[in-house]
Amino acid sequence: MEKALQNLIERLERERSLSEAEYARLIADRRPEAASLLAEKAVAARNRIYGSAVFIRGLIEISNFCKNDCLYCGIRRSNRDCVRYRLTEEEIAACAREGYALGFRTFVLQGGEDGYYTDERLCSIVARLKREHPDCAVTLSMGERERDSYQRLFDAGADRYLLRHETADREHYSRLHPPEMSFDHRMACLRDLREIGYQVGCGFMVGSPYQTPETLAKDLKFIERFKPDMCGIGPFVPHHGTPFKDMPAGTAELTCYLLSIIRLIHPPVLLPATTALGTVDPAGREKGISAGANVVMPNLSPVAVRKQYELYDNKLCTGEESAQCRDCLDARVRSVGCTLVIARGDIKQEL
Ligand code: SAM
């Protein structure tokens, strides 16, 4: 491997920081040997903190109604072909009960920005899940809301919030979103969530249209500064009903490379091997874990609605029962020397 690249990787491991130009270079000049070295160091950093444990989160996709029009997303409001649904409190509680019996100790409620889920309704759902499963964490991923609303949901018992920043480059953000959506507001939401006391997740798509090594370098600098508790990165996958339908998908190769870099920047971070990674490569999730990921998020949504939560084409696991998804992931995780554990899986600080 080129000596300069090896030096960058060794310095990243030691200092957990590179300049923006160095990150861009590490990405633009990447080679398979650099990926192997990064993965080896990332797995060692993960194992130092978490051992061989991989955490599972039960994903409940509560609504595909969305007021937003993100150019990449299959549930954007302009997609008239999307058949919309939303789950009732009763249905969500039933998904969680099934998940609990299968060993899930974190429930992630995700949805489009759907005005039906007022603070009152969402707080009631969160409080119920916490009442019925006091040993579980509730994670929300319901998009941008007012600070007040985040506070109420936290007071109702929500533990964590996932809000991908999508890109840390303002100009890039404006090419992925319609003009009414604001980069500053998204970043302000992340700061509010952190200040309120949530465990917070940011993240971005890999290979999104107009992304460059330079915009990715900004994402990495943002992660360095923000030190998220979780970081969701997965390849962009085009959806046939969006303006980006003919754009190429992101690759598993670059996603895994970035997973390793992010693990080295912030070793305690909880990093999922995403469903999108498994969609672009049948062995994507195993490769993600071998690159330093330590979370998987199987689907707990009712099978009847799974196909309708179609963010991108060919999404995996839309036909399987929750138990099948859990068992399949269990085998995949074991095949790369890790173990799925029954635990909330909170972030661990380094000793
Ligand atoms: N509405 C909430 C929000 O904005 O955070 C949560 C739901 S949103 C659909 C969840 C994530 O899906 C987004 O943050 C985005 O990164 C990802 N996503 C959307 N469309 C995608 C696509 N075509 N390929 C890969 N990921 C996609």
Can you put this structure into words, describing what you see?
With 351 residues, the protein is of the alpha/beta class. It has a single domain (3-341), classed as Aldolase class I (TIM Barrel), CATH 3.20.20. It has 14 helices and nine strands. The chain has helices spanning 3-15, 20-28, 32-50, 89-101, 119-132, 147-155, 170-176, 183-196, 213-226, 252-265, 275-280, 284-290, 303-306, 322-335, and strands spanning 53-56, 58-63, 106-111, 137-141, 160-162, 199-206, 230-235, 295-296, 339-341. Helix 4 packs parallel to helix 5. The radius of gyration is 19 Å and the shape is globular. It starts with a helix and ends in a 10-residue tail after the last strand. S-adenosylmethionine binds at residues 72-73, 110, 112-113, 141-143, 163-164, 166, 205, 234, 236-237, 239, 276, 311-312.
Outline of the structure:
This protein is an alpha/beta fold and 351 residues long. It contains 14 helices and nine strands.
Layout of secondary structure:
Layout: H1 3-15, H2 20-28, H3 32-50, E1 53-56, E2 58-63, H4 89-101, E3 106-111, H5 119-132, E4 137-141, H6 147-155, E5 160-162, H7 170-176, H8 183-196, E6 199-206, H9 213-226, E7 230-235, H10 252-265, H11 275-280, H12 284-290, E8 295-296, H13 303-306, H14 322-335, E9 339-341
Bound molecules: S-adenosylmethionine (SAM).
